[in-house]
Amino acid sequence: MNLKLKFALTASLMGAPGCQCQRAESTASAFPAHDSKVFYATNQVELDDIRDFFKQVFGASDYITQWSEIDKFRAGSVDDARIPYVDTWYPEAANGTNRAGSLNKYDQAFYAGESRAAKWEVDNHSRQTPAWYGHCNGTSVSGSRYQSPKNSVKRPKGCVVGSASCVEFSPADVRALLSEMNMNAKAQFISGRRCSLTDAQLKSRPMLRSDPTVMDACDDVNPGSFHVSLVNFLGRMKQPIIFDQSQNNEVWNYPIYKYKYTVSGPLDEASAVAALQLGEPLENWVFNPKARSWYKVNMTVSYRNSTNDVPPNAGATLVDSTDLNYEYVLELDDNGDIIGGEWVGPHRYNHPDFIWMPFEPADPTGDSSRGNPLLSTTEVTSIWAESVGLDPANPFRDKPKNVFDVRFYPPNDLTWGIVSGYYKMLLDGRNTGSLFLGKKSHLRVEVADILKDANVEVFLNGKALDTVSPTTGSVDLLFDSPPGLNILTMKWASAHVNESEVDWEFKYYAM
Question: HSE-up of 328 (CA within 13 Å, CB side)?
Fold first, then answer.
């Protein structure tokens, strides 16, 4: 029997790779030439991983790959309130997140003036070369998940500015603390891998892959994964995703918050090959053998760029953006599902390295590639919450004042029927994920206090069973289970909890 429906995660990150990560050296000779003119890459495993991750983040929400559904979302964006704010990427060569003394203020407020957070920054985030080392991933996470700091905040609370023990954090200070803290953000790769080659090495690579069925690290994000991810995460769910804009060994993370595209097609195989603009004839070129039709896409993504200098209007939610254009050909199978794709012409050497989604910060590890361990996540979050007028104890669930739809990092595994801290389910009095037939199946749902005023709609194999309110702490349902494998789906409506934390599917076996 298969217990809790478990979704496979791709490489999980405790702090996404960002501007400050060490550069790995490589050479073009690592890519052996291929002796045939066969060139295609399968993408199904990655697409399956993206689907599973999407389900983990959004609960029971439907994930789409079929072109007829995908193409209904030719444009998508976050809500206006979630357009990422403007900030610097806090380059290490310019004192990092202490460039304006923000960490000195933190030390004054929380370490009685002893240089601790500031000293750690000097010791760990002050490399002068390469010049691109900085905090772009922390800034990207902050702009994606946090409302822009608005007001100055005093510590201790209520102190008189100017007195010896009173520290005032300006909005600019709060942004610096957020960027440093979010170097520790939990994160998940959606697609792609980091390429460590220089531009010259990339362009000297052979035309053909060593294994034509596999995209390597410097082929980066498969266009099929890229398109499906933009539509599902951003177009449908209005969640920003972060991309490494640079395909080469440098890392420049920025949040994408809007896209739009145009399409040519459907194309036959010969037209699709011509659309790739290879620059040389490849008589035996083949796409994915399962591909039956092709579309050429011209995609424009809009992202929030960062700046070396903090502008006067830093932190304001502005409508201007930096735009990039990408062209690629998508491959569709005989069911009309996107199964992969190839970059077109010059975009083979000019496309995202990887895309990822950030979540809440993890506890700092002290590693120099991550955030400052001398900053308290609790204290920084409280300062930020006070700056924007949210509940400092729990700002992300301060509804309706917090208009952000903030997702939390999904658990890697769940015991059958148990969503820790929220509810547990029993089938015929057990949480084994199985039951015996011969009578009505009995489902009991026991909830924590935070869900007592919620409603839950329960589905069996996609059909609604009932909508119930566990006001007394539990509810009971009786129903007929078909023999064999079944799926119970829980869809919650709560004023206190995001559905991503509580909407789950559970497999059980009736025998």
Answer: 27
Amino acid, res. 66: Q
Of 257, 165, 222, residue with least CA distance to 48: 222
Residue 449: Cβ-neighbour burial (10 angstroms; 0-12, 13-18, 19+): exposed
- Number of residues in the chain: 511
Please state, in angstroms and as integers, the Cα–Cα distance from residue 506 to each residue in 181, 410, 419, 461, following that order: 35, 15, 11, 10
Domain architecture of the chain: domains with CATH: 418-510 (2.60.40.10)
CA distances from 46 to 10, 235, 352, 375 (A): 8, 20, 16, 36
Nearest to 147 by CA among 500, 390, 309: 390
Buried b / exposed e over 384-394, threshold 16 CB at 10 Å, is: bbbbbebebee
In degrees, to the nearest 5, what angle opens at C-alpha 10 toward C-alphas 79 and 189? Answer: 40
Percent of the chain exceeding pLDDT 70 equals 80
Distance between CA atoms of 339 and 40, rounded to whole angstroms? 12
C-alpha 62 chain-centroid distance: 17
Contact 197, 218 (CB under 8 A): yes
Do the Cβ atoms of 91 and 308 come closer than 8 Å? Answer: yes
Alpha-carbon dihedral sign for residues 101, 371, 499, 425:
negative
pLDDT tens digits, one per residue of 173-213: 999 999 999 999 998 888 865 566 665 665 555 455 545 55
pLDDT tens per residue, range 262-285: 999 899 988 988 888 876 555 555
Radius of gyration for the chain, computed over Cα atoms and rounded to the nearest angstrom:
25
Residue among 243, 49, 285 nearest 137 (CA) = 243
Phi/psi of residue 255, nearest 5 degrees: -85, 125
* 116-133 residue pLDDT tens: 999 999 999 988 888 778
